[in-house]
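Have a close read of this protein, sequence plus structure tokens, and explain what the tokens say about the fold. Thanks in advance:
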Amino acid sequence: MEWRGRRESNNIEDRRGTGGGGGFSGGGMRIPIRAGGGGGIGLIIILAVLWIGFGINPLSVIGMDDGTTTTSTQTASRQGPGVSGTSDETDNFVAVVLGDTEDVWNARFSQMGQTYREPTLVLFDRQVASACGNATSASGPFYCPNDQKLYIDLAFFRQLQGQLNSPGDFAQAYVIAHEVGHHVQNLLGTLQRTTELRQQSSETDANAISVRVELQADCYAGIWAHDTQQAGLVQDGDVEEALNAASQIGDDTLQERSQGTVVPDSFTHGTSAQRVEWFRRGLTSGDMKQCDTFQGRL
């Protein structure tokens, strides 16, 4: 991917070295999401979480909360062009990718007659407090709709390459674009509607709804890749890196790798084939209407 020397997003919050703020509970992450007004329905959805090294299915639904949890966040964060105070080029890379998503979605929302509210990407190490609760690095990248922020420990990229067999900078960019896809869903009201549906559903049906949410985020990541490709910024092999990453984090592949068996009713993000298909659909069509995962069979 052509990224060096290009515009870096200003919407970076660097909390590394601050202790992350708040405490954390081992083995999981609780994300209270307040849906709608009035009674404030609480529902836990982990939108894009990869559990690395714990031997359990990643990107899974964790539990329930009443939506009243509050957390304290340390304020010793750094903001500015790119990621200030660091020389790590990975920092600059994620700032460029986030900038690309801003360019793509600002233009897309403008075409729809809407204003795109740019999310903030929070860099952390070990643990972090968000408006959705506390998390550890083991939770992987995630998006919190309560504060409209993306969270990532950049050590995850080493795990992506090593433990998940997904090398390449475009594989890393796909991860960021997927989380931004959840932000797009949040702005369009999709997350609120699906949260309410999940609240009214059985566990199996709630998981099935979660799969559709995640596959749409993959399709939106494909939309980003389409527009980036049209801008001439995609190099040979980039698309293959993203498709491979999508395949490696399918529920069936991850379950087979971690526990030797596959339990379809527990899927929350879709099979490898589905994740590849929906990313590719956004990539090849460049049409957001083609990303409607909520109609018909997947």
The chain is about 40% helix and 10% strand. Residues 20-87 have pLDDT under 50 and may be disordered.
